[in-house]
Amino acid sequence: MPSSLVDGNSLLAVDVGAANTRAVFFDVVEGEYRFVASGSAPSTAEAPFKDVIEGVRAAISNLQAVLGRSLLDGSRDLITPSQPNGSGADALVVTLSAGPTIRTVIVGLLKDVSLESARRLSESTYSRVVETIGLNDRRKPDQQIDSILRARPDLVVITGGTDGGASRSIKKLLEPVGLASFLLPEEKRPAVLFAGNQKMEEAIKELLKSQTASLHFIPNVRPSLETEDLEPAQRELARMFVNIRKRQVKGVELLDLWSGGHILPTGYATGRMVRFLAKVYGTNKGILSVDVGASATVISAGFKGKSTLNIYPQFGLGENLTGLLNYTTLEDILRWSVLDISAGVLRDYLYQKSLYPSAISATKEDLAMSQAVARQALYLAMQSARRDFPRNIASIKPTLTPLFEPILAGGGALSDASRPGQSLLLLLDSLQPVGVTTVILDQNNLLPLLGAAASQNNILPVQVLESGAFLSVGTVVSPVVSASYGTPVLRAKLTYSNGAEARVDLKYGSIEALPLASGETGSLSLQCLHGADVGFGPGRGGSIPVSGGALGVVFDGRGRPLDLPADGVRRRELIKKWIWTLGGE
Fold it and tell me: What are phi and psi of 254, to 5 degrees?
């Protein structure tokens, strides 16, 4: 082991969420980087503090108590670099998702081309599109100006025109944007990101420079009609997000100073890590990461040639929770509940939870509702994210979830679940994975912090990932099949490394599990019945190596897409049975 690793630098990583702030400490242990400890405290972005630094200091203080070393000095400032007496940390990185949703206006030429790219780009940060202006917009310029003034945007994203292409049309679209920005008070003017025809840079500066909070230019996201490249734009947008938060949220400026500018949006840091994993560990299947948090639900997928990042504040489980009913109904949420709960009780719960997002479920009813809400939020987010996945990816049916290996899952809704079985069932219900995949639970929510740490230390994320800091829930086998309830659809034989065997006959509508401890490996032989498909083709079986986890090998025979019984009593009995099979209560 190189001496530079043995004497490696310690790293403090802080995640400022909408509900909780966490401080995590990484250091070298026996020659390799390890996740050492974490501390958390309620976030303080909202009243009465309205200063994120208070929550950060509280989280670091709680971490100090666990570590037994000082990280803050007498003035409650960070001690950096680490001192000879063992106090302090050598570096700090920060991920940030707290703060109001960024109100965004998107401007582009064609609805299915540049405006679609602008939408995808704005969905890669914590934003909500409040106004769209395109070539087919039939409103008069004064009506467009009025709509922008009403929207009060924090951000304007402009796309359109292939390099060297349309320029007059874009100028015409930008005139109402420039005038509306000019009419807004100076401190309320939006930041502008231009990601269109590169030859228009000077003209754009002339039109908008004096009317905006800041003007940013990045390479065209659509250099040609067939090509889309969002990565440089996402990188710039991440920087703009931090600058907007500095204006909106007290304490972010000081955090940026403490970290030496190493502060990233939480979702972007997750996407960066997934992109890295897809390049390093990528197979023919994709890699999927989901994070169900208070500020947003984040879905990031990495494929061999492309990665996608979708951040949905509208599906967050914090202050935006009541807005979830704009996308779904109380009845659709309650179909996931294991208890018989009325629509009125659920509505009250949504309002209470939106006011106190860090509140922990105190009763069985609260837990059932929180799990049902998280399922529906993640289900809706996955349905929305799927439209941005590349078309040529490995899948069993184009209308279903593609093949992924592995699925990484984190966020408050999953780490709050008392047992791995509850988290796994939540993921199976909402993501509805197909074929054979490994499910890994990020119970300490480390993935975004590792994504932020990569800019400071590119060895640390790799070694922490391989150190066992993540909980392997196990291997999941989900055949795609249509059959009558109770019909055998799959026969499986698990051969352990010591030669012992275990078998299961999977019936349609049921969930089964075979034990295989974490760290153990085995060989799984599958025989598909009634045309079931696990990735080898309809009715085709095969043998595959599998690795163990907290729940071993889980077989989900409920079919895809998942169809829950309409009768409430029967549905709740089935859900209870599934939870019991996976070690829940």
Answer: -65, -40
